[in-house]
Write a structure and sequence with these properties.
There is one protein chain. This protein has 483 residues and is of the alpha/beta class. Helix content is 34%, strand content 22%. It is built from 17 helices and 18 strands. A six-stranded mixed β-sheet has the order 4-5-6-1-7-8, sandwiched between helices. Strands 14-15-16-11-17-18 form a six-stranded mixed β-sheet, with helices on both faces. The chain has a four-stranded antiparallel β-sheet with strand order 10-9-12-13, with helices on one face. Helix 4 packs across helix 5.
Length: 483
């Protein structure tokens, strides 16, 4: 498989150049080649007009190219200054702590990256850890900074702060390569955008000369509609109610007295930074975990601690965050996966199951060799469609679920698959189901939801209508600050 195919990219000093594309389009691979992590099988790399051959990231840094990875590479027990000095070939045997801390502070102040050199990394927030990674790259003398999906785990305020830093670096004459699939952010921060699809360049445009719609078309090869969607009818009766729902493990409240009512015909978005109880909340509602306290009602029926089967029988469907680990069995066929949650006897009518699977593959436009294909061979988007087809379609002769709890339904999907998933959630709402959308992607939450609640340290910190919501207020709540 070819990850990058005859790619030409021209990155200039003083500009923010975004690599945009679907998952698997080759963005991160190209950045890894540019930084020296991978060696290309063909083609050439030029730095300041001089041809270079990079054998490692250290050689990339020697030529002024540094990469900040999506998953941070820091030692939690070390201080900020120690992490920045770690692995620096120019560092002396005896660490000059005072000079190092002064240099770190100066770089932070210069580029709007306030960090405390003596703070331990384990005590820092996600946004602060990212600042350390950027300062570490700047400390090594990088003139070209490659930022791989840098906003994936940040609050809106942290994203704004990051963008200020990116602009400061470009004003200082550095080149910033921004790797992303979020069209709104790309339009806000970029000067130039190179679009990749299946490893090839499908567009190279100035942001001033293009639109979100045009960029999306370059990414997937067709028009894509990601416009906000709202309920078109007034919500009806309550379909899901949580009363003081609590989960305590190892003396810590992972979910803390959450009370919430979901109505049929509406989507309620649950926003929050990763690790604030979102996953545990979804699993409590679905009956996968037992709460320490509180009650769960589905369609007026108390299903607390009765397990996933009873919860499902009451009319709840669940799309877990881990689609291939929890939601699907990768080694089973599509037809078999579609049967997993149905009540059935010991024997299975294989012919009927295959025929039903074939119908769902057509209905949900799942790209697969056929019903007997193993789920592991599917792309992320098509695996998610199998999961959605199973959860939304229900059992023949039984009403479709009245409640759909979905966690990060579009994570890791390309723009085309995101459009499909959002459309399916909107259709579930239109037919009268209540949808609880748990997502760390605030743009997704605001685009689909009718109401938004924010989780912070397992508790609801804020609630508002989605239409006209102030991102600043939501961002403050996500960071634990009262709006």
């Amino acid at each position: 498989m070819i990850a990058n195919d005859s790619v030409d990219v021209d990155v200039r000093r003083g500009e923010v150049h975004t690599l945009l594309g679907e998952n698997g389009a080759g963005k991160s691979t190209l950045a890894a080649v540019m930084s020296g992590l991978y060696r290309p099988e063909a083609g050439e790399l030029f730095v300041d007009g001089e041809r270079v051959v990079l054998h490692s990231p250290r050689e990339g840094l020697a030529h002024g190219i540094g990469m900040v990875h999506q998953h941070f590479r820091l030692v939690d027990r070390f201080t900020v200054a120690e992490n920045i000095a770690l692995g620096d070939p120019n560092q002396s045997v005896v660490l000059d702590t005072r000079a190092l801390e002064a240099r770190v502070t100066e770089l932070g102040e210069r580029f709007g990256l306030p960090i405390k050199p003596r703070a331990r990394v384990e005590d820092l927030s996600v946004g602060e850890r990212q600042r350390v990674e950027i300062v570490k790259t700047l400390y090594r003398g990088a003139e070209v900074l490659l930022l791989d999906e840098p906003t994936a785990v940040l609050t809106p305020q942290e994203v704004d702060a990051l963008f200020e830093t990116v602009r400061a670096m470009s004003v200082a004459g550095k080149a910033v390569v921004f790797i992303s699939h979020k069209l709104g952010e790309v339009m806000e921060i970029s000067d130039q955008v190179t679009v990749l699809r299946a490893g090839r360049v499908t567009g190279d445009v100035r942001v001033a000369d293009t639109t979100r719609e045009a960029l999306a078309r370059m990414m997937v090869g067709r028009d894509v509609d990601l416009s906000p969607r709202r309920a078109t009818k007034a919500p009806v009766a309550s379909v899901l109610e949580l009363r003081e729902l609590t989960l305590v493990e190892s003396g810590r409240a992972l979910v803390d007295r959450v009370s919430l009512e979901l109505l049929g015909g509406e989507i309620v978005g649950v926003a929050g930074v990763a690790g604030n109880g979102q996953r545990e909340l979804g699993e409590l509602i679905a009956g996968i975990r037992r709460p320490s306290h509180g009650r769960v009602f589905v369609g007026g029926k108390d299903v607390t601690s009765r397990g996933a089967r009873a919860t499902r029988a009451a009319g709840l469907a669940f799309l877990p965050e881990d689609r291939l680990g929890t939601g699907l069995a990768p080694s089973l066929t599509i037809a078999e996966n579609l049967l997993l949650t149905r009540p059935r006897g010991f024997f299975v009518n294989t012919r009927r199951a295959v025929n039903e699977a074939r119908e769902l593959i057509a209905e949900y436009e799942i790209k697969a060799p056929g019903p007997n294909a193993q789920t592991r061979v599917l792309s992320g988007g098509n695996a998610q469609k199998v999961l959605i087809a199973r959860e939304l379609h229900g059992t023949p002769g039984v009403d479709a679920p009245s409640v759909l709890v979905t966690a990060s339904p579009t994570r890791g999907l390309d723009v085309g698959a995101i459009e499909t998933v959002r459309s399916l959630l909107d259709q579930a709402r239109a037919r009268g189901a209540g949808v609880l959308l748990i997502s760390e992607d605030l743009e997704e939450v605001l685009s689909l939801s009718d109401r938004v609640v924010v989780l912070y340290r397992g508790a609801i910190a804020y609630e508002c209508r989605a239409e006209g919501a102030r991102r600043e207020s939501i961002g403050l709540a996500m960071a634990g600050v009262a709006p």
